[in-house]
Amino acid sequence: MTFREKLIKATNELNEAGIDAPGYEAKVLMEYVTKMSSTELILNARDEFPSELEERYDSLIEKRKEKYPLQYITNEAPFMDYIFTARENVLIPRFDTEILVIEALKKAKEKGKKLKVLDMCCGSGCIGISYYLERKKEDFKDEVTLVDISDHAIALSNENKEKLNADVNIIKSDLFTELEYEKFDLILSNPPYIRTADIEELMEEVKDHEPHLALDGTENGLYFYKRIIEGLKEHLNDNGSVIFEIGCNQYEAVKGLLVEAAFKSEKVKIVRDLAGLDRVIIADR
Fold first, then answer.
1. Amino acid 219: pLDDT
2. What pTM does this model have?
3. Would you place residue 216 in the very low, low, confident or very high pLDDT band (cuts 50, 70, 90)?
4. Is the pLDDT of residue 66 over 90?
5. pLDDT at 192 > cutoff 90
6. What is the rounded CA–CA span in Å between residue 179 and residue 182?
7. Above 90 in pLDDT, residue 128?
8. Is it the case that residue 195 has pLDDT exceeding 90?
9. Which whole-number Å values give the CA distances from 147 to 166, 217, 245, in the listed order?
10. Quick check: 134 and 101 in contact, CB under 8 A?
């Protein structure tokens, strides 16, 4: 069987299994197994697929058909034009979360100085590390701290820090617990915000394989927003800003928590994603 025939067969199998982008994922897995680039696959399309790699490729296609996440198979996830290492027990970086980083970079540019920045609930480190690297390109070496309660997340963030050569601080902490009296100019967070009852409605890849610790925002989905916002009084500098990723129906509730915490209503704004859904909330002190 040629490379092309093998790819077509795998694509059809993934399509029948209900995978959204079967052709793309079959190609990614073929690149992963063969260590060949997309261009090399095209150039070798009519050649015989290596028999010694056939069993491994087929087994990974079977694994993906069972809705095991592609990023956990390849141990890679693209984010903000960087390739982050992805591992089980840590939330996979998502395209929509790039909006949070983009807005953080805009806010940092407004402030026009070196900043002290916190990435709360950092997971893989994609938010804080990408922010640091992008600011470094602009000749601002911000002091960036990443925090998470999960040992798996801390280990993976450290791995991505080394891989991408990011000079960031990484601390294991239950939210602000280990930060004592540290204050920040910018606090970024994509906390767990799915209502407990809604987790079973998520895609199989997410509910069955990604860590519920990084998803579950308890009964109303607001638990971590409330706790983080309570900590802003001690940990956000005057004229500082907080930027959260939120669920598409959580803007009013999270805005209410911010206003209760003495943020002015007119200094709270929403940013929508490409689908027009509420995605990021920004509040300036």
1. 81
2. 0.94
3. confident
4. yes
5. yes
6. 6
7. yes
8. no
9. 15, 17, 16
10. yes
State the distance between the two ends of the chain, measured CA to CA, in whole angstroms: 63
Would you say 130 and 99 are in contact if contact means Cβ atoms under 8 Å apart? no
Strands 143-148 and 236-245, sheet pairing: unpaired
Q: Per-residue pLDDT averaged across 201-223, rounded?
A: 89
SS3 sequence, the chain?
A: CEHHHHHHHHHHHHHHCCCCCHHHHHHHHHHHHHCCCHHHHHHCCCCECCHHHHHHHHHHHHHHHCCCCHHHHHCEEEECCEEEECCCCCCCCCHHHHHHHHHHHHHHHHHCCCCEEEEECCCCCHHHHHHHHHHHHCCCCCEEEEEECCHHHHHHHHHHHHHHCCCCEEEECCCCHHHCCCCEEEEEECCCCECHHHHHHCCHHHHHHCCHHHCECCCCCCHHHHHHHHHHHHHEEEEEEEEEECCCCCHHHHHHHHHHCCCCHHHEEEEECCCCCEEEEEEEC
Q: Which two tokens stand for residue 2?
A: 């040629």
Tokens 């027009």: give the residue. Answer: 276
